[in-house]
Amino acid sequence: MSTVTTRMSADDRRELVLDAATRAFARTGLHGTSTDAVAKEAGVSQPYVVRLFGTKLALFCEVLDRTTARIAAAFAEVVEQHPFDPAAPDDDPGWELLGLAYFDLLEDRDLLMVMMHGFTAGDIAEVAAGSRAGMERILHVLERTGGSDDKVRDFIAYGMLLNVMVSMRAPEHAGGGPDAGPLAAMACLAFGDKLDDIAAPRG
After folding, report:
1. pTM surpassing 0.85?
2. What would the pLDDT profile of 77-89 be if each residue is shown by its tens digit?
3. Into which CATH architecture does domain 3-167 fall?
């Protein structure tokens, strides 16, 4: 380990490795990422990564859990700060605030790609279980809005559309606006005035 990391607390070093693993898994997924690649990304030794997390699978599952927890926390903050109208929860303007919170998260491509890699690695029982648990965590927060099943379903479906479009980098190739082709038109429609922000992500 570097001198800098040895000065950090154990919790901080663990977070450092999780941050590095998020970046590494976002690029190459579970199957294409080694613990050695995570260690190099974090600036620590490979045995240290193994000592902290045991296996690559366990590390990926923790990164995936951390990702969905971040999404749930962002939604929970909106719900807590904006109590939904119990008389008309489906028409409450809070849904727009939830959408804006998700747009902000989408600017971090690493977060999005880890989630997508988790979904596509569902042939591994532990990863599938982690994905289901993460989605249930998010759904529990959305249920607190009092919205109907249809409203929650449509919100999740819209989010999944955004995920797919960002993962294929559609926003970055939407130049020319709606006249550039059907996918560009869909990107413009789906992302609206957030298109430029998503096309130039933070992560």
Report:
1. yes
2. 999 999 999 999 9
3. Orthogonal Bundle (1.10)
